[in-house]
Amino acid sequence: MAAAGPFVPPTPTPRPRLAASFPASRHPPPIFAGAYDTAPPPEEEDAGDIDEAAPRGGGGGGGGKDRRRAVRIAWEKLVRWSRSWRRRNRSDVLETTRKVVVLGGGSFGTAMAAHVAAKKADLEVAMLLRDDLVCRSINQSHVNCKYLTEHRLPENIVATTSATDALAGADFCFHAVPVQFSSSFLESISTHVDPKLPFISLSKGLELNTLRTMSKIIPKALGNPRQPFIVLSGPSFAVELMNKLPTAMVVASKDKKLASSVQQLLASPNLRISTSSDVTGVEIAGALKNVLAIAAGIVEGMHLGNNCMAALVAQGCSEIRWLATKMGAKPTTLAGLSGSGDIMLTCFVNLSRNRTVGLRLGTGEKLDDIMSSMNQVAEGVSTAGAVIALAQKYNVKMPVLTAVARIIDNELTPKRAVMELMNLPQVEEV
């Protein structure tokens, strides 16, 4: 065997100084947007030591230590920046908020009521409900006997069927009524609503006959075009919020100051809140992802495999982007928490109501049987037809979401829909 020659280490490739990546503020940006990301990092923190972290070696040995040290220093600087930013931006929103009202007692409305109530013991959280039995359960046992029954609710949550009592003196209002029932419900309580009361919409979908989102439904139903409005959306299952698992969402409003206030009201160690001014993008993504989740469930129910699932969701994301951008949404919104984040959650996780509907359709069950057996609303079922009407209005082709609408209308079987989609012309990806 020939003897190995002497090892000659390769000439190390010069690396750019880490500080050069951030010439404006000399600080790295946060890893992802969150509760304190609306301004540049504080300038007085010295970033000079970042130069010392630049790796000077090549492969192993000392070079590996230098790289580990660079990572450690970068992380420590991020933590220092985060602490400094929080100190500078402490808010009195929670301190000055005395009462919050939640309209609706479904799973997510209940979870949001519990989340806010847990942040401040003397905060009154009123839940306006239709069911006397659920009211008594919450007030006497501190449990919602219909939804999230295994979770005890904070004692500062009070349930009532009286709109007058619930809305009196409220500082913020969370709207958690299903979209298709929202107009009639809001009209019935409009005389009790303060015209300056901010409405935070938790409802996702499109009104079937009018194609309106909640940002249009709420002001119209209340008879006040200037009613302050915020939409809260993102990948968030109610049960995980109740279990205080790490969650990130986005609040969107045309009023940046209002969005910031809601951000500060909701942000907690287990809930990160980003802000946006793209109300259209957040609402449309939240509505259309429910229809796509039904399609994903159908693929799962038919056992069509992972390749098919990935292709379908990718195509669905493109269709949502085509329509939403035609309606004025920002592409960055669709790539964020309320877009791709929410799509991934609802399409790939079994806790999704809409995915469950699709899964059962894919196994051959009838839609009427599925809907009659559910105690929660799957908004994608009613939204599907509205989505297709929107697509026609904006002249956008949406083959996957159109197929879902035709399956729901019993005009196409899931098997036939798959065959027709696979036989569409082979075209350039856009």
TrEMBL record:
EC number(s) reported in the record: 1.1.1.8
Any one GO MF annotation of this record: glycerol-3-phosphate dehydrogenase (NAD+) activity
Ranges for domain Glycerol-3-phosphate dehydrogenase NAD-dependent C-terminal: 278-418
Record InterPro entries: 6-PGluconate_DH-like_C_sf, 6PGD_dom2, G3P_DH_NAD-dep, G3P_DH_NAD-dep_C, G3P_DH_NAD-dep_N, NAD(P)-bd_dom_sf
Record's signal peptide: none
GO terms under biological process: carbohydrate metabolic process; glycerol-3-phosphate catabolic process; phospholipid biosynthetic process
Pathway in which the depicted protein is active: Membrane lipid metabolism; glycerophospholipid metabolism; Phospholipid metabolism; Lipid metabolism
Glycerol-3-phosphate dehydrogenase NAD-dependent N-terminal domain ranges (all copies): 99-258
Acidic residues compositional bias, start-end: 42-52
Annotated region described as Disordered, given as residue ranges: 1-67
Compartment(s) where it occurs, according to its Swiss-Prot or TrEMBL record: Plastid, Chloroplast
GO cellular component: chloroplast; cytosol
HAMAP family according to UniProt: NAD_Glyc3P_dehydrog
NCBIfam families in UniProt: PRK00094.1-2 (NF000940), PRK00094.1-4 (NF000942)
Family membership noted in the UniProt record: Belongs to the NAD-dependent glycerol-3-phosphate dehydrogenase family.
Name this protein carries in UniProt: Glycerol-3-phosphate dehydrogenase [NAD(+)]
Source organism: Eragrostis curvula
